[in-house]
């Protein structure tokens, strides 16, 4: 898919960026169809206090990323004309602006999805602005996905928040409190006790360290087909199908990368499509089989439908594992 690209170098009106930050640049892009920025970008947020992501009261969305050209901050806003306006700051600004269409789903094809269930047909119709994002960045999705292994989302979000704020750096541009995640060297040098303070056990910490030591190979996966990308990621001990799927859904915009091994998703899919809240992975994959090639989109639509069973698994207590 393609859209109209209108570059226009400018600085954010009335805002003086920090001296360490490059002047703000901007572009507009006209999507080929409806785009709901919230639906597209929310999967990139790791909890309501994610220091790399912000949904502002004015309807804009901010992201701080570590791009191949360096740190960058991106602000995206939908216009009444149907265009999307974006501004960016920092060494990675141009890279982020070049990737704007992919980020907002330009490579995604919602028309390839054919609903086979009334629930999905209804949700697909009500959510025409859903597009699958493609960030082109692997580690920024891989590392928080590793942190989410075998723990509650609250615990994982807390770990990500603490580690990014302590070992990352303030994002360039006019967004106080926004942070860029640590670079690969900083991740590799985090002391064991700091992982523990963040609630991250030795196994997950070791997996992150192995991944960042192979950062170049990991980032190459963003240009691969999703299946090959997952295979590349799973070469790292500690990264399995759950983690690789969660990553390529975001980095590669993979419409068929269904998450297996999840504690809740099989029951959600089973309940929505067959009234079976006790469905396992095999049952879930069977129910999603008619959507081969689009199984991740089908799962997203199910989650957006609101037809989900109440969770029966109690939250695990949070603790500093260094004290256990």
TrEMBL record:
Residues 1-34 are annotated as: Disordered. InterPro entries: Alkylbase_DNA_Glycosylase/TA, DNA_glycosylase. The keyword Lipid metabolism does not apply. The keyword DNA damage applies. It comes from the Bacteria. Keywords: DNA damage, DNA repair. PANTHER family: DNA GLYCOSYLASE, DNA-3-METHYLADENINE GLYCOSYLASE. This is DNA-3-methyladenine glycosylase 2 family protein. The lineage of its organism: Bacteria, Bacillati, Actinomycetota, Actinomycetes, Kitasatosporales.
